[in-house]
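Example 9 (inverse folding). The structure is encoded as follows.
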């Protein structure tokens, strides 16, 4: 039996027990794939991150849900970089590259006057794919009626590193009625049955926010809902530029709010700039240390 120290951070919040929890295990190079998966399962967060050595970047990060490995996770990246910086493991470095299964991504650290550390990470180039399934069944799968779906904006699979189904919703009040039947997602999401589901709207609780969202996990991930999602917020920004702010030139700054309905409200900054026919997407956030604990491995 071997125990491993797990550090619990909440990302996209400066207040413990808000935002999105992530586990960070600093000795990733000492663990096998099976051990990482076992730890993530026992931790039970939406993601647990394992920083590892990289021959192509300043460091690598591997991300595991309780059910499988992910290509990229925004909130767990924030938590990992914040952990490494505050523990003195990055030295004075403020610009670094991170190797992920979604590619090598630049990350920048900025300290505010109040000593808060803000982390900005690049996302992979945005991709969109059409959803051809039943809108009625899709609405039912998140506890809504088809009439709650926005009738002027498209439902699309989107990715800036991890695929999710973007579902535009008419009204903010619908988010309090949502109740996900995650087990139904694969049969409805026929094009990408392992995709997560990400309803959003343009009405917000916070007057300073531009978009509101919830994020329901694929049943294969072993979790139900992600409190505040970084990569999904990134692709929401690209969706906003392409389908809401049509013909956008230059750049835009957005704030995404999420987690309000489950008492985990957090904020993600999203920067989108035009790059030829595509967009460059970055997300910005912070993190806060909550506690550490030990996980006993059997493998």
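The amino acid assigned to each position is listed next.
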């Amino acid at each position: 039996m071997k125990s491993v120290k797990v550090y619990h951070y909440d990302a996209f919040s400066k207040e413990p027990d808000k935002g999105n929890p992530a586990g960070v295990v600093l000795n990733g190079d000492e663990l096998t794939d099976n051990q990482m998966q076992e730890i993530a399962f026992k931790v039970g967060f939406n993601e647990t991150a394992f920083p590892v050595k990289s021959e192509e970047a300043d460091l690598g990060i591997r991300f595991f849900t309780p059910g499988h490995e992910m290509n990229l996770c925004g909130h767990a990246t924030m938590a990992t970089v914040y952990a490494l910086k505050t523990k003195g493991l990055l030295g004075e470095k403020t610009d670094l590259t991170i190797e992920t299964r979604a590619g090598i991504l630049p990350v920048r650290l900025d300290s505010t006057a109040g000593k808060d550390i803000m982390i900005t990470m690049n996302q992979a180039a945005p991709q969109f794919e059409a959803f051809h399934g039943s809108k009625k069944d899709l609405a039912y799968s998140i506890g809504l009626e088809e009439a709650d779906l926005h009738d002027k904006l498209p439902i699309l699979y989107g990715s800036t590193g991890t695929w999710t189904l973007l579902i535009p919703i008419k009204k903010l009040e619908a988010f309090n009625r949502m109740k996900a039947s995650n087990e139904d997602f694969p049969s409805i999401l026929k094009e990408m049955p392992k995709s997560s589901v990400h309803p959003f709207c343009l009405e917000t609780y916070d007057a300073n926010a531009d978009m509101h969202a919830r994020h329901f996990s694929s049943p294969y991930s072993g979790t139900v809902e992600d409190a505040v999602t970084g990569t999904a917020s990134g692709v929401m920004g690209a969706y906003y530029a392409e389908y809401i702010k049509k013909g956008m030139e230059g750049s835009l700054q957005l704030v995404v709010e999420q987690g309000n309905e489950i008492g985990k409200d957090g904020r993600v900054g999203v920067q989108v700039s035009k790059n030829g026919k595509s967009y460059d997407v970055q997300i910005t956030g912070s993190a806060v240390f909550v506690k550490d604990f030990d996980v006993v491995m059997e493998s």
